[in-house]
Specification:
The protein is α+β, with helices and mostly antiparallel strands and 345 residues long. Among the domains are: 37-119, TruD, catalytic domain (Pseudouridine synthase, 2-Layer Sandwich), CATH 3.30.2350; 161-301, Pseudouridine synthase (2-Layer Sandwich). Helices cover 26% and strands 26% of the residues. The protein is built from eight helices and 17 strands. The chain has helices at residues 4-7, 57-68, 144-157, 187-212, 240-247, 267-278, 281-289, 327-331, and strands spanning 19-22, 29-34, 45-53, 76-77, 86-94, 107-108, 111-119, 130-138, 159-160, 223-226, 232-234, 251-257, 295-298, 300-301, 304-311, 314-322, 336-337. Strands 1, 2, 3, 4, 5, 6, 7, 8, 15, 16 and 17 form an eleven-stranded mixed β-sheet that branches. Strands 11-10-12-13 form a four-stranded antiparallel β-sheet.
Length: 345
């Protein structure tokens, strides 16, 4: 099965401006979660803002459970963050032995509680508005005018919303030897493999639209999605209002998150998606056999608050992304890397 569209899909905005290296030090990769709500200020849980360094999310959750005197499954967190980084993320714990005011400063080697607020409920997965990144790319020394031009293009057009390489495991390991029967997957690998298979098909469809030059423009038969939202609607015919909204990055075309049933598109768009997915019949068959429902994902990623500054021998990039987006989607439109670094969001 071809995995190139997943691991090395085509770029949309031109050749890379050079080659760089990521995460030579943990502080080279800094990510902070942006909540989509305010703390409740009262309730039976405590919402914790935690800074971690070279520590994975699940380990921090277990440590917080110990400090809170609760079981690990009672700790809530919105998403997983990479171990090899500095990450600021949110957790909730039941309010039992410690009031909110007793939490700031708590922690251990590898993490520290920065803030604590009384809150009404356990933090569910995905409960984020997005993530704010500050990433140092070492060894990259582009011409200033070339970097400025590339940043302007990204601000104006966005980037292809590819799933990042970590979705597929190291060197695509989650895509090797896909079974025909989801029952053959072990419990601890089922979610990773199904997610990788679905992401492979999406990346392949997006790669084809990048090659055709229509990844950022709405087509009749598309389903358009609101920026940063999950709701989408059918595009039966294009008009000036839709074109302008797309140009302002308010709405985007979508691609299929494969499932059992129609992907939701129509016309030439449906034909393209069906043709590309046909090249990944084993992945699609596994997804359908698992009973997954079809969904849609934006083909384009708007990059907010994008800026850069130069350091000796490095470029530091800062930007905000909506939840579910991968920093690699932005970085690969700027530069290339010697290895397929795995970057979590």
């Amino acid at each position: 099965m071809q995995v190139e569209p997943a691991l090395a899909p085509p770029r949309a905005l031109g050749e890379p401006l050079g080659q760089g290296r990521l995460r030579l030090e943990p502080q080279d990769f800094h990510v902070e979660e942006v909540l989509g709500f305010e703390p409740a200020g009262a309730g039976e849980h405590v919402l914790l803002k935690v800074r971690k360094r070279e520590a994975n999310t699940l380990w921090v959750a277990r440590e917080l459970a110990g400090l809170a005197g609760c079981r690990p499954f009672e700790v809530g967190y919105a998403g997983l963050k990479d171990r090899h980084a500095v990450a600021v993320q949110w957790f909730t714990v039941p309010r039992r032995g410690r009031a909110a005011g007793e939490w700031p400063g708590a922690g251990a080697e590898g993490f520290e509680v920065l803030e604590a607020h009384a809150h009404a409920r356990k933090l569910p997965r995905g409960a984020l508005a997005g993530n704010r990144f500050r990433i140092r790319v070492r060894g990259l020394e582009p011409r200033t005018e070339a970097l400025d031009a590339r940043l302007r293009a990204i601000r104006a057009r966005g980037v292809p919303n590819y799933f990042g390489p970590q979705r597929f495991g190291r060197h695509g390991s989650n895509l090797r030897d896909l079974p025909g029967d989801p029952g053959a997957l072990r419990g601890d690998e089922r979610g990773f493999v199904l997610s990788a298979a679905r992401s492979l098909v999406f990346n392949a469809v997006l790669a084809e639209r990048v090659r055709q030059g229509c990844w950022e423009t709405l087509q009749p038969g598309d389903r358009a999605i609101l920026d940063g939202r999950g709701s989408h609607f059918a595009v039966e015919a294009l008009d000036e209002t839709l074109r302008r909204r797309a140009e302002r990055l308010e709405i985007h075309p979508t691609g299929p998150l494969w499932g059992r049933g129609s992907p939701g598109s129509s016309g030439a768009v449906l034909e393209l998606e069906t043709r590309v997915a046909g090249g990944y019949s084993r992945a699609c068959g596994l997804i359908e056999a698992a009973g997954m429902e079809p969904q849609r994902r934006s083909l384009r990623l708007a990059v907010r608050e994008l800026r850069a500054h130069l350091e000796p021998g490095a470029v530091v990039l800062e930007f905000d992304l909506t939840r579910g987006a991968f920093a690699t989607a932005v970085l690969r439109e700027v530069c290339a890397f010697a290895d397929q670094e795995e970057i979590s969001t």
